[in-house]
């Protein structure tokens, strides 16, 4: 499901998915809107992510906060596995990331930097072979459980 905020605010959802100036001009407002929704209902976005899902395996990408991980663990228990994808700051800068104070140090960007023990940590620094090996490990684990 598509988050409600872009439609509610007349924004171009597809343009919000890229790394454009369009997205950056709305980023802080979107973060503020998301925080308001979470304060009123901590499971709001988590429920939206799984609504209608019937597959035996789900990949819920881009969780941002400890409360998100806790929600999934509370609802789905031992079935939940966590994966963190990391890249060095140097790699991120090569990919045109620029630190923005008040945004990149907000909970929406670093809320899972502490307090979560991840089942897997995948490093994505541009080495395709290393990335493939790490993903193959995940896929093997998953296939063993289906």
From TrEMBL:
GO terms for biological process: cholesterol biosynthetic process; isopentenyl diphosphate biosynthetic process, mevalonate pathway. It is found in: Cytoplasm, Cytosol. Its main location: cytoplasm. Its EC number is 2.7.4.2. InterPro entries: P-loop_NTPase (IPR027417), Pmev_kin_anim (IPR005919). Keywords: ATP-binding, Cholesterol biosynthesis, Cholesterol metabolism, Cytoplasm, Kinase, Lipid biosynthesis, Lipid metabolism, Nucleotide-binding, Steroid biosynthesis, Steroid metabolism, Sterol biosynthesis, Sterol metabolism, Transferase. Signal peptide: none annotated. One of its GO terms (molecular function) is ATP binding. Pathway: Isoprenoid biosynthesis; isopentenyl diphosphate biosynthesis via mevalonate pathway; isopentenyl diphosphate from (R)-mevalonate: step 2/3. It holds the Pfam family P-mevalo_kinase. One of its GO terms (cellular component) is cytosol. This is Phosphomevalonate kinase.
């Amino acid at each position: 499901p598509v988050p409600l905020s872009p439609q509610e605010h007349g924004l171009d959802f597809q343009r919000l998915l890229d790394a454009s100036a369009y997205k950056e001009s709305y980023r802080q407002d979107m973060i503020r809107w998301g925080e308001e929704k979470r304060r009123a209902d901590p499971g709001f976005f988590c429920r939206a992510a799984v609504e209608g899902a019937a597959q035996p395996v789900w990949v819920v990408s881009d969780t941002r906060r400890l409360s998100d991980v806790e929600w999934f663990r509370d609802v789905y228990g031992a079935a939940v596995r966590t994966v963190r994808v990391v890249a060095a700051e140097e790699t991120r800068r090569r990919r045109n990331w620029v630190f923005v104070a008040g945004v990149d140090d907000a909970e929406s960007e670093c809320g899972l930097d502490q307090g979560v023990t991840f089942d897997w940590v995948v490093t994505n620094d541009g080495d395709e072979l290393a990335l493939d090996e790490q993903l193959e490990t995940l896929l093997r684990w998953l296939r063993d459980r289906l």
